[in-house]
Design brief:
Its main location: cytoplasm. With about 325 residues, the protein is an alpha/beta fold. About 45% of the residues lie in helices and about 10% in strands.
Length: about 325
């Protein structure tokens, strides 16, 4: 007796005929029936996505063109800072804070650290002395009680005598805690000047221009946005074009300086700023100081009439 009983498909009444079985796995619509044949599936969706892609591409190209136009305009302003608009009236109306500050101001700018002297440590290469930082050191000494020190790193074999005494004869007559600020210069074999104020909490500030900005900020001068931007632009121009640029770039910068100094006594307006210090030092350390336009020559004499600039000149001799 069989366990399972299966109905026979062959010969019995009602058997499945062979022609009723499927002849293909999947059935697709015939696309070749004549002119009125149906359109391929998803054709409309493909066309819509292509149109969206084309529209997006045109929008991107339009934005790129606008950005290119804006960059071209900025490059012209950098080459000739006073060509597009005259900021003389804005600069003259700017309110300046004098180069004076007290201990309370210094604490607000650098932070109050009880029981420890705020010490600025700068590493510089004696073969490329950062003249602007030495000028700023002299200016800071007129405002604060500064404990200055000069050291030589083991990576440097020989340092000229005038650089070892660039801060003058240091005779400490007071205890360390009676000073407001420490200023330590280390002659070291580094590619560019480096500065640290807080050894534990900050990364080094690199570049003569950036360090000069930090040191000059200790005077607490306040400027509006236009003047601050103009001063920053002059600092970068002095470092990258006047000091390190080609002869053509230096000539272009001197022409721009001559135009600006024909309107205002200083590069930043009516008061001495970090732009004047960095630009003057860049001129002194290049051959550009030999032949300068009339307004620039007058401005250089005004700088040299100040004691910190005059003492820096001795280091170049």
């Amino acid at each position: 007796m069989p366990m399972y009983k299966v109905r026979s498909f062959h010969g019995a009444p009602g058997a499945v005929r062979a022609e009723q079985l499927p002849t293909c796995m999947y059935r697709l619509q015939n696309l070749h029936r004549g002119p009125a044949a149906a359109a391929p599936p998803h054709q409309e969706e493909v066309d819509a996505s292509l149109l969206a892609l084309e529209s997006r591409q045109e929008e991107i190209l339009k934005r790129l063109y606008e950005l290119k136009t804006a960059v071209d305009g900025l490059s012209k302003m950098i080459q000739t800072p006073d060509a597009d608009f005259d900021v003389t009236n804005i600069i003259q109306a700017d309110e300046y804070a004098p180069l004076t500050a007290n201990a309370a101001d210094l604490d607000s700018m650098l932070g109050k650290d009880y029981g420890a002297l705020k010490d600025i440590v700068i590493n510089a290469n004696p073969f490329q002395p950062p003249l602007s930082l030495l000028v700023l050191h002299s200016l800071l000494c007129e405002r604060y009680k500064i404990l200055s020190a000069v050291h030589t790193h083991s990576s440097v074999k020989c340092v000229p005598e005038n650089l070892l005494k660039c801060f003058g004869e240091q005779t400490r007559k007071q205890s360390r805690h009676e000073y407001q600020l420490g200023f330590t210069l280390i002659w070291k074999n580094v590619p560019k000047p480096q500065m640290k104020f807080s050894i534990q909490t900050m990364c080094p500030i690199e570049g003569e221009g950036n360090i000069a900005r930090f040191l000059f900020s200790l005077f607490g001068q306040k400027h509006n946005a236009v003047t601050s931007t103009l001063i920053d632009s002059w600092v970068d121009t002095a470092i990258f074009q006047l000091k390190e640029g080609s002869n053509k770039e230096k000539a272009a910068v001197l022409r721009s300086m001559n135009t600006t100094l024909g309107k205002t006594p200083w590069l930043g307006g009516n008061e001495l700023t970090v732009a004047d210090i960095v630009a003057w030092c860049a001129l002194q350390q290049t051959s550009s100081s030999n032949a300068v336009p009339a307004n620039v020559q007058k401005w250089m004499k005004s700088c040299e009439n100040l004691a910190p600039f005059n003492s820096a000149l001795k280091l170049l001799k």
